[in-house]
């Protein structure tokens, strides 16, 4: 089974943002040692408890402290940016870290409405223009702008020997079709979707048009998983991010992921108990055997080429240990 890591750079209640970002680097190093194929870090804006607003900065840091693991954005929120600038940034990274760079492309705001307005005066308009933005980005990444294009004489320097690999990330048929029409690999965020992911992925495969000779549909399925030696311990560790999610829905949780003890002390009302159970249904929580079996089931159901795992815990040690246990059982 091919496994990868998605990191949202979570900040625990006993951490600073600097400490959380340091733990992200340690996670990438651990992933490389354990045999994970790639490490992606997400982009978020003004969301309490999440430390990474600029993946390209973290990728420079992580690339310099790792050797082989593929690294990338999960995702660049393209409506905020000019495709030319994105191509420049990721060409720079691909020049520094040859044949290791992925460019995950997304359209979500990644933050509050206020943060969106602070970042862009026309975000919604740019979301509607997403197909054109993607096409322009691909031309810049390939250095293949048509002669009649208004930027045909512009190069996104420096040009790396091996171009970064673009991916479309999403949770809808719209993103799946966008990936298929452009002949791009597709990463489906199962961990943040309640839609029929298998149908969406099949739509992607059925609609796929090769971008280059030999291209074929390629799918990453992104899931949330927490693994420990026993099911009980995994459930205990998972309580922290689950309670944090409930707090965020109430407009709280500004102090980051609560400790296990803090999570246990939180008194759930009936509505919250039901919400927590629904959230758990979209996670994999258990011992290594349980997690492996569930990953295998999802891979077969979604016909995924690769599983990308996002794990949020209060303790950085619990997070890395979870990835270690999964790797030992499944890689």
Automatic annotation (TrEMBL):
Pfam families reported in the protein's UniProt record: Bac_luciferase
InterPro entries in the cross-refs: Bact_Lucif_Oxidored, CmoO-like, Luciferase-like_dom, Luciferase-like_sf
Luciferase-like domain residues: 1-299
One Gene Ontology cellular component: cytosol
GO molecular function: oxidoreductase activity, acting on paired donors, with incorporation or reduction of molecular oxygen
PANTHER family: LUCIFERASE-LIKE MONOOXYGENASE (PTHR30137)
NCBIfam families: oxido_grp_1
Family recorded in the similarity comment: To bacterial alkanal monooxygenase alpha and beta chains.
Annotated protein name in UniProt: LLM class flavin-dependent oxidoreductase
Source organism: Niallia endozanthoxylica
């Amino acid at each position: 089974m091919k496994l990868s890591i998605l990191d949202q750079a979570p900040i625990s209640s006993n951490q600073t943002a600097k400490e959380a970002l340091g733990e992200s680097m340690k996670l990438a190093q651990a992933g490389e040692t354990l045999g994970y194929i790639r490490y992606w870090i997400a982009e978020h804006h003004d969301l309490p408890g999440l430390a990474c607003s600029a993946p390209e900065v973290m990728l420079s840091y992580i690339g310099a402290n790792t050797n082989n693991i593929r690294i990338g954005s999960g995702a660049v929120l393209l409506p905020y940016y000019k495709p030319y600038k994105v191509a420049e940034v990721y060409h720079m990274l691909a020049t520094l870290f040859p044949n290791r760079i992925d460019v995950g492309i997304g359209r979500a705001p990644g933050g509050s409405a206020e943060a969106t307005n602070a970042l862009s005066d026309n975000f919604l308009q740019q979301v509607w223009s997403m197909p054109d933005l993607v096409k322009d980005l691909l031309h810049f990444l390939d250095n293949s702008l048509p002669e009649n294009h208004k930027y045909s004489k512009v190069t996104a320097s420096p040009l790396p020997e091996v171009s970064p690999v673009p991916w479309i990330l999403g949770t809808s048929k719209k993103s799946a079709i966008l990936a298929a029409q452009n002949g791009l690999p597709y990463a489906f965020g199962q961990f943040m979707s309640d839609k029929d992911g298998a149908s969406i992925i099949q739509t992607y495969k059925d609609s796929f048009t090769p971008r280059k000779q030999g291209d074929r549909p390629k799918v990453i399925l992104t899931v949330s998983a927490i693994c420990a030696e026993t099911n009980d311990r995994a459930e205990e560790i998972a309580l922290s991010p689950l309670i944090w999610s409930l707090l965020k829905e109430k407009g709280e949780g500004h102090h980051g992921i609560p400790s296990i003890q803090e999570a246990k002390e939180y008194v759930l009302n009936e509505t919250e108990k039901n919400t927590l159970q629904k959230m758990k249904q979209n996670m994999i929580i258990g011992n290594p055997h349980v997690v492996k079996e569930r990953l295998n089931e999802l891979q077969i159901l979604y016909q995924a080429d690769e599983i990308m795992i996002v794990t949020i815990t209060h303790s950085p040690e619990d997070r890395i240990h979870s990835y270690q246990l999964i790797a030992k059982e499944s890689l």
